[in-house]
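ASSEMBLY PREDICTION REQUEST
Request ID: AP-0331
Submitted by: J.K., bench scientist
Number of chains: two
Total residues: 557
Priority: normal
Notes: Please return the full assembly, not individual chains.
Input sequences:
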Amino acid sequence: MNLQAVTIGQYFPGDSYLHRLDPRTKLIAVLLLSVAIFLPRYFPGYLLVALFTMIAVALSRVPVKFILRGLKPIMIFMAITVLFNAFLTPGEPLFQIGRWAITREGLVLSAVAAVRLVLLVVSASLLTLTTSPILLTDGLERLLRPLAPLGVPAHELALMMTIALRFIPTLVEEADRIMRAQEARGADFRSGSLINRAKGLIPVMVPLFVAAFRRADELATAMEARGYRGGTGRTKMKQLAFSGADYRAWAILVLFTVAVVGLRVTGRG
Amino acid sequence: MPITLSHVSYTYQPGTPYEWHALDDVNLEIPDGEFWGIIGPTGSGKSTLIQHMNGLLKPTQGQVLVDGIDLSARAANLRQVRQKVGLVFQYPEYQLFGETIHEDIAFGPRNMKLPADEVERRVRRAMERVGLDESFRDRSPFGLSGGQARRVALAGVLAMEPRVLILDEPTAGLDPRGREEILSLVGAFPALGMSVVLVSHSMDDVALMADKVLVMHRGKVHMLGTPPELFSRRAELEAIGLGVPAAVQLIDMLRSRGWELPAGAVTIEQAVEAIRKSLRTKAGGGRG
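STATUS: Completed
Returned structure:
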């Protein structure tokens, strides 16, 4: 098993227009886009949303190969969605397979579901691909701050996210090491029934959890030792600031949203 | 149970920007019953090297033979090889998982599919060897002292009764007493018919225990020889960021101040002996 190949929420370093945007702009844009993806009912609407996403991909200068790789994990989920929609939607039958029929309505719904899923995942990956984890959490914290009076622990949430992201590679490395050590003691993670393999993970999971708790403890102590006291009164080394690029992005976003909503309301898309 | 490496090279993540040549044309033969020390600066390929000796890593190029079995061969039974070549990683106590110490030590023998009474016998013997008495049997392995936990981990590998034991920095992070305990334990293995390979940062430990010392540098075999041979080449060792044992430093210092001392003392005891002799002849010469 090669754990080094695991990549989660990967950042693709670069200096494109999308990379330079303020993380808040990008967060809001993804939020708007994911609503917009579910609004259209007819072809023109979908075309507009798809075009917008594709332009964003082009602007990010991230290789398309990289973006498609992010789609891999949802392939099974997508296949199931498409199959269920195709077979289980009542309507005019097109093909008959045994007692199951694919209906015209089913095909349309499948296509819609597939397009929506792909667009959703692509736009979400664009966010993480073009925004470094630190900026992302900074942006999230700033966006959540107005909600603090309502009891939303903005700073704490952001900190948790930063720490989680920071420790993913560490934990992956640790898991790899523990697996090797148990393999040296004759453990076998590659063969046997699914249940046996699942049981075989106990000698990996237990030390991994123990290590994670130990690390958490040490990290907390180290933070306290350096005077960390939470979010109040804490200043930032890098202040987030909107630039001209952001204002242009906002303008385009507003236009796009109006267009999508307009198409929907007028019943044309 | 000789281990032979011929033209072994290993590359991490080949073909990516993170490509790293950890081993580069390594040729070695570790004969039966010898105690080898491996030293080298950080990143010199020591850990990669030892993982080749029980098939945890397979060479990108070259061949590893353990007892005549080619570990890269598809038919090679790696499980069997791993029983014969025990590998104790750095900080092995971080891999403990059993509910009780007994459970944890029994993990290896159980993976070997041994009958229950044989597992029992081996666990008992392994605990005896590392000096853990019966009272530890049903205790949790978590919450032991550092030295104790490490001995439990060591017992977990010993219970497989390997014929070669490879240890990666077995004394790292232990207090002097824990260090002493582990070292005297490891030092006793050759007498029990085991070959030992000890990766260490401590020149003193290596000088004290090893028959042969291998110096790794940038993935290559940099030097190989007996401790007296090797530690007489102080400048070469220091050039790659290593050093010599305290005893060698002392002898060198005394010689530079005009003492007549023979080279070749690498342990404290040998140094004491050499100095005592020299004092005797000095005293004799003074009278004569």
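REVIEWER COMMENTS: The longest strand of chain A covers residues 93-97.
SIGN-OFF: pending second reviewer
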